[in-house]
Give the backbone structure.
Amino acid sequence: MDIKFSGFGGQGIIKAGYLIGKAASLFDGKHATLNQSFGPEARGGACSAQVIILDSPVLYPYIVKPEILVAMSQEAYEKFFHEPVKGGIILIDTDLVKPATVRKDLKLYSISATRIAEEMGNRIYANVVMIGFFTAITKVVSKDAVEKALPGSIPQHFVDKNIEAFNKGYQYGINILEKKKSEQTKKKEKTEA
């Protein structure tokens, strides 16, 4: 699975990619690589993290066309929305991304990750809210693996708050999937009637 996390410096984009790769390789028994790209600015510049997760060893650690794109800034969305493969997935933070162009051949899912993080007391948790959402929607890594990857990846006194942020994003994603499944069931029943 080829995944690109994108946004701007200071959002924890690289950390998000690192956590997903760590969860996959250490706790889900898969193989993972991480490559990162960022501008010379410490904060505010464009950045991305490319994560490849496979059941077998990763032989080429660079992404040509991601299957999943996570965009947490408008600039990142506009720069990368054309990259995912047909049938791929795009996850966006609706607080910071307003898609002017939407590809019909992709599945688009959105969450107000920044707003949820702010309601928790600090927008710094937005990337972990997005990781929870990503985990629920894509099923690339397990919920248990990500929860095990958080301690040791962040300062100890922030672990509980990050697990809370992860669970909020995860539950939001589960609710979206259940709603979509319910709508499809109703549509199917209506068609058969």
In short: Residues 126 and 190 are 39 Å apart (CA to CA). The chain has a mean pLDDT of 93. Strands lie at 2-8, 31-38, 46-54, 68-71, 89-93, 107-111. Residues 2-192 form a domain with the Pyruvate-ferredoxin Oxidoreductase; domain 3 fold (CATH 3.40.920.10).
